[in-house]
Structures are given as structure tokens and as C-alpha cells.
Automatic annotation (TrEMBL):
<keyword id="KW-0808">Transferase</keyword>
<dbReference type="InterPro" id="IPR045038">
    <property type="entry name" value="AIG2-like"/>
</dbReference>
<dbReference type="InterPro" id="IPR009288">
    <property type="entry name" value="AIG2-like_dom"/>
</dbReference>
<dbReference type="InterPro" id="IPR013024">
    <property type="entry name" value="GGCT-like"/>
</dbReference>
<protein>
    <recommendedName>
        <fullName>Putative gamma-glutamylcyclotransferase</fullName>
    </recommendedName>
</protein>
<dbReference type="InterPro" id="IPR036568">
    <property type="entry name" value="GGCT-like_sf"/>
</dbReference>
<dbReference type="Pfam" id="PF06094">
    <property type="entry name" value="GGACT"/>
</dbReference>
<feature type="domain" description="Gamma-glutamylcyclotransferase AIG2-like">
    <location>
        <begin position="28"/>
        <end position="124"/>
    </location>
</feature>
Length: 166
């Protein structure tokens, strides 16, 4: 694998990282690696309830030096396709939030149904002109990525439990 896999580590709530979960998000719009059952199973130990969804005005952009995408505004009026995770527990939200790159912003987006969902938005920089491809990722990176997710899942969970016990 020639592209970097982001270094994920448990991030206690008491660290300098802003608390992206302070707004009590409910449903998560997944447009990248988190829409794959193998990644969800590796991180959460289960596959949450999922429904197809899309977010008009956004695209899942390929990012320089990363195998995962970033959700960015689409000036051409396209729509990012993905899945809505509808039954995440508080602990699962915390695991996924610790897993996500610190650069992402957790914000609400309007979905094609008119409902709103929470999504990790890429703030800019390193955005390539082409969209990220789930099929390309599945073929070239999924096995190694899911294995890495499984290795770090225990660390993420342990780190979150330590920080909540303090």
C-alpha cells in the first residue's frame, strides 16, 4: 500500500481536541470507508442499521496521500451517495469520532429526503479534483484497512473508557 493510512489514536475528551459530539448527534451520514460493513464490524464489532442516503451539494472527494475521502461542497450540484447509520449508541459515536481524522468537522447536512444527518466534513486542503471511489478502495485497500481498523479498535475503546472513568 503506497498511500498513508491515517494514524488513529484514542483521544480522551480531556485532550485539546474540540468535543465534536457536544451537539448530541443522532444519525450519521457515511460517504466513505464507514459505509463498508468490514470497516464497521472491525471498529464497532457489529454492523449498525443502515439506509441508503445521498447529500445534494456535496461530493466525496479523493484526498492527496489518503485512502479515505473527504466530504466537500460540490459547486457543480452533484450529490454524495452513502449510507445513514441510524442506531449508533453513545459509545459507538465516541469510537467513530475518535477514529476520524482530527481535521474533520462534524456538521449537519441536508439529505435528498429533506431530512438532516450528521457528517464528517473535510475543511479543505489536499482535495483532489476527482471523486473518491468505493470500488477502487474495496479492490486496492479494504483488506489492509479493515485489518488495521480491527487492530486499533481495542485501543480506541480502551482509551475512551479510561477518559470517561476519570
Amino acid at each position: 500500500m503506497t498511500q498513508m493510512l491515517n494514524q488513529h489514536a484514542a483521544v480522551p475528551e480531556t485532550s485539546g481536541r474540540r468535543d465534536r459530539l457536544s451537539q448530541c448527534p443522532d444519525v450519521l451520514f457515511c460517504y466513505g470507508t464507514l459505509q463498508l460493513p468490514e470497516v464497521l464490524e472491525a471498529l464497532l464489532g457489529r454492523i449498525p442499521a443502515r439506509t441508503p442516503a445521498s447529500a445534494p451539494g456535496w461530493r466525496a472527494a479523493a484526498l492527496e496521500g489518503r485512502v479515505y475521502p473527504g466530504l466537500v461542497a460540490d459547486a457543480l450540484g452533484g450529490a454524495a451517495t452513502g449510507l445513514l447509520l441510524t442506531d449508533l449508541s453513545t459509545e459507538e459515536w465516541r469510537i467513530l469520532d475518535a477514529f476520524e481524522d482530527d481535521r474533520y468537522e462534524l456538521r449537519q447536512v441536508t439529505l435528498s429526503t429533506g431530512d438532516r444527518g450528521w457528517a464528517y466534513i473535510w475543511p479543505g486542503g489536499d482535495v483532489l479534483p476527482h471523486d473518491w471511489s468505493v470500488e477502487d478502495f474495496r479492490t486496492r485497500h479494504l483488506d489492509a484497512y479493515a485489518a488495521r481498523c480491527a487492530r486499533i479498535a481495542a485501543e480506541l475503546t480502551a482509551g475512551l473508557r479510561r477518559s470517561s472513568a476519570q
